[in-house]
DNA sequence: TTGTTTTTGAATGAAAATGATTGATTTTTG
DNA sequence: CAAAAATCAATCATTTTCATTCAAAAACAA
């Protein structure tokens, strides 16, 4: 059974049942567990599903809320710490860019509401921003379903209208040699441009992003400062030599 | 049974019954007590429920719904009728503009999902559109908190990139002499422009909008066709002489 | 064909989830 | 009130699932 067939099958089962177990997929497709795992990993990277222990789950198309499992996890606590620190960097009068992404969303409750202007391409941020009565501008363009982000030519064009004091970006990979990377080419271009339009750029990343490489390159390490939570001595040294890095400790 | 499945199940039972006993959950899920306990602990950490001795209780957080349930239920039926008819006008291959507004939102479930392209300035539409996997473009610009619409210079500028087969607009006032009106000048400009970029334009309006005048003028009656629900003979005559009007009857 | 890349399946140890057990705590019962 | 019963948190061994690695198989190109 060919890879795209399996992927289609998995997605179909997922659509029907909401959750699938790896063992069931192994039986149905008559392939090895390894192969199914690889399939799930790929599909998750493309934001087609959420991997869970023992299988995979359909991801709810909801525009906000993280899922039940992640809401209670340590992971969210860490994200929130990073986000809170990042939000603390914003001063009254700033105009800032908020990249699409869940870590960045966590910044919003901590932003100084008064006198700041926010520009974003993240659909998941809007309601939180409006709720706080923050002056918000949205990029125009194509609304991508999987990542809930505005992308495309239109988005790049609308970015041109703005300049930022600070921008806050999410990335999928941080690597000493390959810099900041993300799976989607279009999103990479937006991130790139936003960084170039900003006086200061910050990348928000938990420790799982380090030494990872995703498909599309955003830029070299020195183009942005990194805000993260944990990092062992060795890695910290590696990265400190290439860019500014702030480790937020618990 | 996978962890998220159990979590979902627990929450569902909780929603129905208010409280659940641990033993019942053990029986239903056919897992051990330990596991259920762990589940409850996690869910409590995520603020999904309150643990009580012997089980768990629902947490009446801010689960309030759009509270105007009573008054609008009849109104909603009417809106939905209008919306459904309007959606029926859209054909595969069309590119359409959806104005911000609650009546227009009701169109989305009835739109032919395949092969259409939607452009909108209505933030309230996005999640419904994405859920239906409809190709969606959003105008860029300022996000207005009260109306959840994108407005401003940026929005006008991004409109220029598009042309539409059909556009569907909401208005606050329809008047034989003063035409279509809406309270906000900025929104009026957007609506105006969208209509001018569209081959055919439709205004969705329930009967309460007729003979009303709001502050900012969008255009004369003849610039768009009207889709409404009820309209007495006399009025219908008045308007039919000035534009196309479709009365959707129950 | 031959050499190269991609895909696959198996093996490994690490990580996570589970179920049973313990003794402490709370609730119920007499 | 005190004893009994039920529920609890904490711990540990076991099982399951996981990521990673590597070599074989398959698909591909020259």
Chart the SSEs and their pairings.
The structure is a homodimer of 250-residue chains.
Chain A: H1 3-17, E1 19-21, H2 22-29, H3 33-45, E2 50-52, E3 55-57, H4 68-71, H5 74-88, E4 95-98, H6 102-105, E5 117-120, H7 126-131, E6 135-138, E7 141-144, E8 149-151, H8 153-159, E9 164-170, E10 173-175, E11 179-182, H9 185-196, E12 198-204, E13 216-219, E14 225-228, H10 233-240, E15 245-247
Parallel strand pairs in A: 4-5, 4-9, 5-6, 9-12, 12-14, 14-15
Antiparallel strand pairs in A: 1-3, 2-3, 7-8, 10-11, 11-13
The structure holds a DNA duplex (30 and 30 nucleotides).
GO molecular function (chains A, B): DNA binding; DNA-binding transcription factor activity
InterPro entries (chains A, B): Carb_Metab_HTH_regulators (IPR050313), DeoR-like_C (IPR014036), DeoR_HTH (IPR001034), NagB/RpiA_transferase-like (IPR037171), Tscrpt_reg_HTH_DeoR_CS (IPR018356), WH-like_DNA-bd_sf (IPR036388), WH_DNA-bd_sf (IPR036390)
Keywords (chains A, B): DNA-binding, Transcription, Transcription regulation
């Amino acid at each position: 059974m060919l890879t795209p067939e399996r992927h289609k099958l998995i997605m179909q089962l997922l659509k029907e049942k909401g959750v699938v177990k790896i063992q069931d997929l192994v039986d149905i497709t008559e392939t090895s567990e390894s192969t199914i795992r690889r399939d799930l990993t790929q599909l998750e990277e493309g934001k087609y599903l959420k991997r869970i222990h023992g299988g995979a789950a359909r991801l709810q198309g909801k525009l906000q809320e993280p899922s039940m499992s992640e809401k209670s996890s340590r992971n969210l606590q860490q994200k929130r710490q990073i986000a809170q620190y990042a939000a603390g960097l914003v001063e009254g009068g700033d105009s800032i860019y908020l990249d699409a992404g869940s870590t960045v969303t966590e910044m919003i409750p901590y932003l100084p509401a008064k006198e700041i202007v926010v520009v974003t391409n993240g659909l998941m941020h809007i309601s939180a921003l409006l709720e706080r009565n923050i002056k918000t501008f949205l990029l125009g363009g194509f609304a991508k379903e999987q990542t809930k982000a505005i992308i495309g030519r239109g988005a790049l064009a609308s970015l041109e209208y703005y300049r930022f004091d600070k921008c806050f970006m999410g990335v999928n990979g941080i690597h000493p040699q390959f810099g900041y990377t993300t799976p989607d080419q279009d999103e990479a271009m937006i991130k790139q441009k936003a960084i170039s339009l900003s006086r200061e750029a910050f990348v928000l990343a938990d420790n799982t992003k380090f030494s990872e490489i995703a498909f599309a390159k955003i830029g070299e390490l020195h183009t942005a400062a990194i805000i993260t939570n944990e990092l062992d001595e060795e890695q910290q040294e590696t990265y400190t030599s290439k860019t500014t890095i702030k480790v937020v400790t618990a």
